Each structure stands twice: as C-alpha cells, then as structure tokens.
Amino acid sequence: MSAPKPLQFLLVSASYQCTEWVNRCLDSVLSQTYPHFRMVMVDDCSTDGTFERARARVGNDPRFQVLANTERRFPLANIVRASAEVGGGPEDVLVVLDGDDWLAHPRVLERLAEVYADPEVWLTYGSHELRVPPARRDRWLRRKVRGKVYRYPAPVSELGAYRYYDFIAAHLRSYRRFLWEALRDEDLRDSDGDYYRAAADAVTMWPMLEMATPKHWRYLDETLYIYNNQHSLSENRPGSRPEQLRVALKVRAKPPYAPLERAP
Asked: Boundaries of each Glycosyltransferase 2-like domain copy (predicted)?
C-alpha cells in the first residue's frame, strides 16, 4: 500500500507597497521546516519595487509564483486570484500571509500540520503579535489581549453568532480548500460588483466559521504570525477604519450561512 499523500499548504499573499518587508515575509516561508507547500503572491501595482524584490528573492524556486496586477484590485480580489492560481485539492489548506507580515518562526507550518492531521479540523485562526503592541484591554474579557485574537465565547459559537460579535478570527487564518470554495462569490462583492476593498478577513471568515461550526474550527493560542502594524497602509491605521466599518456593517446584515454538510 502506498503512503498517504502529505498535507499540502497553499499560501496566498497580497502585497502592496511593502518593499521594506516583502523579503522578510518570503524568508519566513523559505525557512519553514515543513516542506510540502506552495505560495502565490499577487502584487497590487506597487510602485516601490515590491514585485521586483519578491521575484528576485524566490528566483526559480518552483514552489513560489509572484504575479503582478495591471490595475489596483485591493486585498480581497488579490486573495481570490491567488487562491485560484495556487491550485490544490479539496482537503489541502489555504494559509493567508500578507506581503508586509511574516510567519513567527520556522515551525509554523509544522504546527499547522499537526492540527490538520485531524480530518475534522476545517479551519483555524490565531494567533499573532502586533509588531507594535497596543496597550489595550478587551471590553468583553476585561484584560489585555494579544492583537485581539482569542477563543469565541461559548454563547457566540454555540449560536453561530460570529457576525454579531467583535471580529476576532484574525491571523493566522487557515482553512481547507473545500470550505473556501463553498463561499458564494456574490457574497464577497460590494454593490458595485467589485470585491470589497476592505475587511477581507471578516468578509471571508464569518461565513466559513458559520459553515464549519465549532466542531470543525480551532483557535490556536500561540504566536504563529507577526502582524506588521508599522506599515503606513496597514488596515489597523485610523484612516482605513471608516471603510472597514462600512463593509463590516454590510456583511453583518447578510443572512448567516448554514452549516456545511459533507459526506463521511
């Protein structure tokens, strides 16, 4: 009997104006001890040399593909494109890594492989550290939290009420390809027909959490990802928050997804 095929990780990345950090992002992937992965990075018309630097860093490594848009598309459209380009089977795992961020250590994919060895796991989130951690207390937990990522309180997960609670299903975000493909494309698009320009994490994670149900998602309480909030274009910056709020309110108003039924 042949050995089972190893789990493949499919890293998808959107980059824009991050030449200062893109090599650190790619080096964090190149240093991974788990060898079974592919990565597609889509550069969103950067003018600072991000695309050229990324292409030079990965060279001819067949595991990497660096693509360049011909017009600005914004993060969600780029993640959709990268997810289509990277391929993979339904049980393989998509991992989101922004081009200005990086994996926290060389065993991140190895750790995810341990978690996804359980076929009942369809999705994971957490945990990350902000490069410049804020001194803040969470209003629900009444204590300081790391980058506002923690396990959903039981009433939220039991009711599937993720849209009605603070968004906490943040980096590191990963999920099986079949779960990603169960998203309806129209639910990722704004009223103008284009993909939402902000809040890509909430737009995609809320429905996937609803489909997975608590039985199939896991919160990982360990630092796997460094979120670079020093980047002037980070969505954590105040200037981007009105658009984030607008998108989040529109998505919250949509009906929740039903739990996904899969044949055993």
From this structure: 15-148
Q: What is the pTM of this model?
A: 0.93
Which residues lie below 8 Å from residue 180, measured CB to CB, with a gap of 6+? 83, 94, 204, 208
Which one-letter amino acid corresponds to residue 96?
A: V
- Give the separation between CA 247 and CA 115, rounded to whole angstroms: 31
Residue extents of the structural domains in the chain: 9-252
User: What CATH number labels 9-252?
Assistant: 3.90.550.10
| Per-residue pLDDT reduced to its tens digit, 84-139 | 999 999 999 999 999 999 999 999 999 999 999 999 999 999 999 988 766 455 55
CA of 171: how far to CAs of 1, 62, 150, 163, 219, in Å? 38, 26, 11, 17, 10
What residue type is 46 in one-letter code?
A: S
3-class state of residue 161 by DSSP: coil
